[in-house]
Each structure stands twice: as C-alpha cells, then as structure tokens.
C-alpha cells in the first residue's frame, strides 16, 4: 500500500510525534503531540488495545525509548519533549518488553541521571517484577517478560559506529523480544523502530542511512522467520515519514562502491579530524577509502565545521542529493506479510494503519 502522512489542520509535513500518534491511535494531531488529539486529550493506541485484549506487548527501538515514536505507542503527553513524564507513562503502561536507550531518564539527577523528581524508575520497574539489563551479554539472562533493556543513557549509537560489545543490534533485540512475547498464549503486539534512519536523514549522511536501513532489514528478516513458522502472524513494515528528501543519482552518476566503503558516520570522521591528530587526507583514506583531490581537501578545510565539508564531498562522490535537512511530505510505501496482509493494499492515510492492524487482530478502537 501507499499512504499519506500530513498532520491535522492541513499541516502537510509531519513530525515524528504527530505521525507516531497517527500510526498508533488512528487520530490526526499536531506537531509534538504524543498520544493526544488536537484538544490535548489522551486517545487510546493500538498497543493498549492489544494489551486490554490480553496480548503481550513490546517496544524495540534504537533511540531512547521515550523518544517520539515509541512514546506514541506507550504514553500520552502534550509535548514530545516531556521526556521524564513520558518515561513514567511507559512505566505505568506495563509494556512487557522494552529495549532501546534512555537509562538517564530513569535515574534522578543526584545519582547522575536527568530526573528532577527524585524518582529512581529502575527501582520502580524492579518492584513491578521487571528483569533489567544493560548490555548485549545480559540478553540471555532475560528468560521471561517483563524485561527492560536500556543500553545507553540516551539514544543508542549509529549502527555504522556501534560497538557490538556495548549495544545489541536491532535484529538481536527484535529476536529476543519475539522469543519473550511469543510465550503469551493470547499473542502479542510488538513495535520495532529503525529509529536512526531518520537521524541519518537529518544529517544527510548517506552511508549511515544505508547502514541503519540494513539493520532494519535484518530485524524484518527476524520477524519474517518467526512468521514463516507461525502463520497467524502479521508483519507490517512502514515509516512515519521520509527524512532528507533523498534522491539517488546526480547527473546520472551513482557510486554504491563509495557508499559501501565508508566505515564511520560523517560526524565521527569530523570528530576524528578535530581530535585524532592525523591529517584529513589520511582519515578520509582510512574511513572512506578515497584519495581526496586538492579541491575536495579545500572544501573540508574551508568549512567552519568539518562535518559540512565531509558531507558535501562524500555525497557528491556517492551521487546522492538531499533536498532537505528535515522531513518531507512524500507518500510512503507499506509492506505487509502474513495473516490479513491484504487489508493493507491500496491507497490510504497513516491514520488507517492502526485501525487495519487492530482489525487484523480481531479488535477495534
Ligand atoms: Zn526526524
């Protein structure tokens, strides 16, 4: 299927809070709204409806778990920036499996976190019976829901820069979440987000964007493998919006080899230029496998922020054009596989998606 993503009141370009809310609740709302309508009133979401029907629920993301999209599936708040309040909503929502980043939002300021209400939410999750983990090596220790796995204080690392000893991949988290949730005889609802495809789009970082998309693809593969042996499973793949107005090919040029050879995010290469001591030419050789021309070197040197120069040089080499540093308003493709997948064929709006998912589960809003 293909669907539109605009917000309420003819605001054509959505943010992640409004689109997350549309996709979780079926209600159009305003920029920044988390699970509330245009009158700032809480509206039920598909995860809550699934939970009410006795199903297990899960959220797996690579941003902080109280970021806009996962928040839209577990919280109700007038604004997406109410991170501390949203984390309390997630606690109160009793989501069975929660994997991502955001440990700082569970810890009071006095203990090194960012909470200003003195609450230690880790203690409160423990009191509710949650197993709490913070590293990939601890994943096997979680043998039964509920489980909270927060692997970084804020967002997880970009996939292209990720240290596999410190943070699990999206596919690893998805696999673990499905194992835990599938134990529920009533079935489960799981929302998995490749959260940082958007971040890479905002930064116009093409290699990082591709690596994030492959990480999502690997998570989808995990879900498809489960669906293959559990044919009553529905797998839906959709985005909240496009980011960066990306198009492939500049004057008929596109070089996927350069795209593949880049080994770090543009931001990390820029940080190394500032801190590492090696020359720009050496670092671009090591991390992007290219020999800079004199003109390209000048482009990087002349920018006040090296990351801008790196972005324009590497995007030009690859042959990608970014029309924006923000979201675009294009219609989006949706793929559905398995039980009731044909509900998703055709043209519709993002607010139809949770209604179709609920219908596939035999439920309604
Ligand atoms: Zn965004």
- Report the biggest beta sheet as strand number plus sense, adding barrel if it closes: 5 strands, parallel
The first-to-last residue Cα distance is: 22 Å
**Helix tally?**
14
* Strand order within the widest beta sheet: 4-5-3-2-6
Which word captures the global form? globular
For the residues shown, what is the average pLDDT?
A: 97
The proportion of residues forming helix, as a percent range, comes to: 25-40%
Proportion of residues in β-strands = 5-15%
Order of helices and strands: EHHEHHEHEEHEHHEEEHHHHHEEEEEH
Flag low-confidence runs.
none
What is the number of E strands?
14
- Rg value: 21 Å
Q: Which structural class fits the helix and strand makeup?
A: alpha/beta
Q: Which ligands occur here?
A: zinc ion
What can you see in these coordinates?
The protein is α/β, with parallel strands linked by helices and 365 residues long. It is 38% helix and 15% strand. The longest helix has 24 residues, at 206-229. The chain is globular and about 65 Å long. The two termini are 22 Å apart. It binds zinc ion (ZN). Zinc ion is lined by residues 16, 198, 202, 243, 327.
Short account of what is shown:
The protein has helices spanning 16-25, 46-52, 68-72, 83-92, 121-127, 170-181, 196-202, 206-229, 256-261, 266-275, 280-288, 294-302, 306-318, 352-360; strands at residues 2-4, 56-64, 97-101, 131-133, 147-150, 188-193, 234-237, 242-243, 246-248, 320-322, 327-328, 332-333, 335-338, 347-349. It is α/β, with parallel strands linked by helices. Helix 6 (170-181) packs parallel to helix 8.
